[in-house]
């Protein structure tokens, strides 16, 4: 069953923020220590607008690692 929230990765990554369809230009790296081993790195991609929003979401949950520019 196709899921609109989990479509195949297009050439241009789309921001991971809920409802945002903007091109992503940042990688937000995070790890949830409750479910991931410390060496595991999860990645969200974010547009300029949501880079800080997503980072802050993770930061207050102690899951934030870093933000990297998205290679393209
Ligand atoms: Zn966005």
Bulk shape = globular
Q: N-to-C terminal Cα separation, in Å? A: 30 Å
Side by side, the strands of the main sheet go 2-1-3
List the uncertain runs. Answer: none
Tally of separate helices: 1
Mean pLDDT: 89
Order of helices and strands: EEHE
Number of strands: 3
Radius of gyration: 12 Å
Instruction: Please outline the major beta sheet.
Output: 3 strands, antiparallel
What structural class is derived from the secondary structure elements?
alpha+beta
What does this entry look like structurally?
This protein has 72 residues and is α+β, with helices and mostly antiparallel strands. It has a domain at 23-72. It contains 1 helix and 3 strands. It has one helix spanning 48-59; strands spanning 26-30, 42-46, 64-69. Strands 2-1-3 form a 3-stranded antiparallel β-sheet, with helices on one face. The longest helix is centred in the C-terminal third of the chain and has 12 residues, at 48-59. The termini are far apart. The model has no long low-confidence stretch (mean pLDDT 89).
Task: Indicate the topology.
Elements: E1 26-30, E2 42-46, H1 48-59, E3 64-69
Antiparallel strand pairs: 1-2, 1-3
Zinc ion binds next to helix 1.
Features:
binds zinc ion; three-stranded antiparallel β-sheet; 22% strand; alpha+beta; single chain; 72 residues; globular
